[in-house]
Amino acid sequence: MSLWSIPLFETVFTRCTVTLILSYLWLRRSGQPIFGSMHARNLLVLRALVGFLSLFSFVYSIQRLPLSQATVLSFTAPIMASIAARIILREKLKIAEIGGLALSFFGVLFIFRRILTTQAVSGGLVKPGEAISLNVRGSDHMLAVLVGLFSSITGGISYCLIKAGANASDQPLVTVFSFGILASPAAGICLFFFEEFVLPSFYSFLLMLVLSILAFFAEVLLARGLQLEKTSKVANVQYIEVALTQLWGMGLSRIAPSFGRLVGCVLILVSVFYTMYIGPEKEMNDVA
């Protein structure tokens, strides 16, 4: 049994449960308050709620959209995060940071350009007798796109709440725990009502467990990064996931190399490395 045969909510439930358990054990071992300080709890509850909405709206869109379209929509979240940080946290956006975000997003479009174009063309070739079903599919597709955009917007707001919650509690791990304590039971409820539980093989379960542990550390590092740096810079670094995934796939011959993919990876890497170059030390030197 492959990992792809496991229902999506079952995978989400495993990931959220592992996140909840590991963050709880870490907080208890370090002697930190489980629910954070009193003045930070409202932020943590709001972060958990917004993160929950973002995750489950993304699950809805990825179930109803082609993977490439859902991926492109999900990577508008760093742009939304930068806009939200400007409005909510009053962070200033420099031209270089705006340009870096734009460059990274264009890199994502270059990578998925051929797939998106193929889907658009094939979607337009419909027989006359399929007009009614096309209208139904079109409305469902538009709803899925809107839900995907909603996921990106709430994901961007969640970045700001993670930053604010980590700063208020002085412990970024609390923001991870607050998300897990809501998302884990919610994923279990969705699995019970909307999907059938599939008993995974030992290999599939081990793979889900390893990926969930890695996702936990990624969330902790993201929260710590948001605590230390501007939201726009941390958000831009998230695009490196796409470039590394493509390069890894081409290295293993799972993805065919193409000009668009290579250009997209180069654009993302250049943007991310430039973002790292204009970090806090560089800014302090400029001020001095």
Tell me about this structure:
The structure is a single chain. With 288 residues, this protein is mainly alpha-helical. Helices cover 81% and strands 0% of the residues. The chain is built from twelve helices and no strands. It has helices at residues 8-30, 41-64, 67-74, 77-88, 95-124, 131-169, 172-194, 202-228, 231-237, 240-251, 259-277, 280-287. Helix 3 packs parallel to helix 6 (131-169), helix 4 crosses helix 6 (131-169) and helix 5 packs antiparallel against helix 11. The radius of gyration is 20 Å and the shape is globular. The model is unreliable at 120-136 and 284-288 (pLDDT under 50).
Would you spell out the secondary-structure blueprint of this structure?
Layout: H1 8-30, H2 41-64, H3 67-74, H4 77-88, H5 95-124, H6 131-169, H7 172-194, H8 202-228, H9 231-237, H10 240-251, H11 259-277, H12 280-287
Helix pairs in contact: 1-7, 1-8, 2-6, 2-7, 3-6, 4-6, 4-9, 5-9, 5-10, 5-11, 6-7, 6-8, 7-8, 10-11
Rg, please? 20 Å
Give the N-terminus to C-terminus distance in angstroms.
Answer: 59 Å
| Count, helices | 12
Shape: globular
Summarize model confidence as the mean pLDDT: 82
Structural class: mainly alpha
Please describe the biggest sheet, giving its number of strands, its sense, and whether it closes into a barrel.
none
Low-pLDDT runs of 5+ residues are: 120-136, 284-288
User: DSSP strand (E) fraction?
Assistant: under 5%
Number of strands: 0
Order of helices and strands: HHHHHHHHHHHH
How much helical structure, as a percent, in the residues? Answer: over 70%
